[in-house]
Design a protein that fits this description.
The protein is of the alpha+beta class and 324 residues long. Strands 2-4-3-10-7-9-8-5 form an 8-stranded antiparallel β-barrel, surrounded by 4 helices. The chain is globular. 38% of the residues are buried.
Length: 324
């Protein structure tokens, strides 16, 4: 029994390592965790086969022309399924989850210049069964484990070859450089240099995202935080808990965070540490009962344009190649 527990702990540590870098060397992970490359490979292959892990690429909001971000909590009447399906289908949503509490479902939206935000929220309000939408605007995002952060600028040009490489990585985040080169029509070394350049500039990030749909071995908790004193002190305290996500917000809360842990007990302990800290005046928590969408950008939407797409439009990308 103890051997099984040790093996399970090792498996979780392997998957955790890939959350930060989905292309991390299996040999390096094995060396860090004191196991074999074969064991690491087996754990990852099983997790992907069981749909517990998705290794994919996330795209910088800058490359997608996205400027404003908000977190929405929806009060609903009647069945939630049609609302859930509509939210998942919207390209503006990056995160959708069924949650506990009075608000049955939440979503993060990322949009282009105004009035794209208002139009998107209006479209969600008009969904049949949505009674109310509580919106929290992000002033800034401090941490997002699974996505590059917005900088408001990029310093290089993106062309069709980059686009194809990113699209291929979204299907297989650990595709070899030979496979990437064949897909994009360049040599393996050319594909490697392209990906290194995109990564170095914060344009993309290959990550291992836990698939938290019907079941999840990594429970997570949404937290709305109000600061008692200086906001910087509250941010520092939340950051010390190693959240998956942390944003400074405008609205009901000063901060919104996502906490995760390997067990419910550990997650409850993190929430208690927040509650008793002198820089925190209060918190609200909601369990992510089922995360149905966690996707940060699509390769075919990479654009150098700052033009605003229509709500729900996936195909508004101009031709590639201009500087981003």
């Amino acid at each position: 029994m103890e051997h099984d527990e040790d093996s399970e702990e090792l498996r979780l540590r392997v998957l955790r390592a890939l959350r930060y870098n989905g292309r991390e060397s299996y040999s390096r992970i094995a060396a860090q965790l004191g196991t074999t490359r074969r064991q690491v490979t087996r754990f990852v292959a099983q997790a992907i086969e069981r749909r517990e892990l998705q290794i994919t690429v996330s795209i910088s909001p800058d490359l997608l022309g996205l400027e404003r971000f908000a977190y929405l909590q929806l009060l609903v009447d009647g069945p939630i399924r049609p609302i859930r399906e509509a939210l998942v289908a919207m390209p503006e949503t990056t995160f959708v989850a069924d949650i506990s509490g009075p608000y049955a479902i939440d979503a993060e939206i990322r949009v282009a210049a105004d009035p794209h935000l208002r139009e998107t929220v209006d479209a969600i309000r008009r969904l049949p069964g949505v009674r109310d939408v509580r919106m929290h605007l992000y002033e800034s995002i401090d941490i997002n484990l699974y996505s590059p952060l917005r900088t408001g600028r990029t310093e290089f040009a993106v062309d069709e070859i980059d686009r194809v490489i990113v699209q291929h990585l979204q299907q297989d985040g650990r595709a070899t450089f030979r496979e990437l080169g064949e897909a994009a029509g360049v040599s393996p070394s050319g594909a490697r240099l392209r990906l290194e350049r995109l990564t170095r500039h914060g344009a993309v990030k290959v990550v291992g995202i836990p698939v938290r749909g019907n079941r999840s071995e990594i429970p997570s908790l949404g937290v709305g935080v109000n600061a008692a004193g200086r906001l910087e002190d509250a941010v520092a305290h939340v950051r010390a808990l190693e959240p998956e996500f942390l944003a400074i917000t405008v609205g009901r809360y000063d901060l919104i965070a996502t906490l995760s842990a390997d067990s419910t007990e550990e997650l409850l302990d993190l929430a208690d540490r927040l509650r008793r800290h002198p820089e925190i005046s209060g918190i609200d928590t909601w369990a992510n009962l089922r995360i149905v969408k966690e996707q940060y950008g699509e390769g075919d939407r990479i654009s150098a344009s700052r033009s605003r797409p229509r709500v729900g439009d996936r195909a508004g990308s101009p031709p590639p190649s201009p500087p981003v």
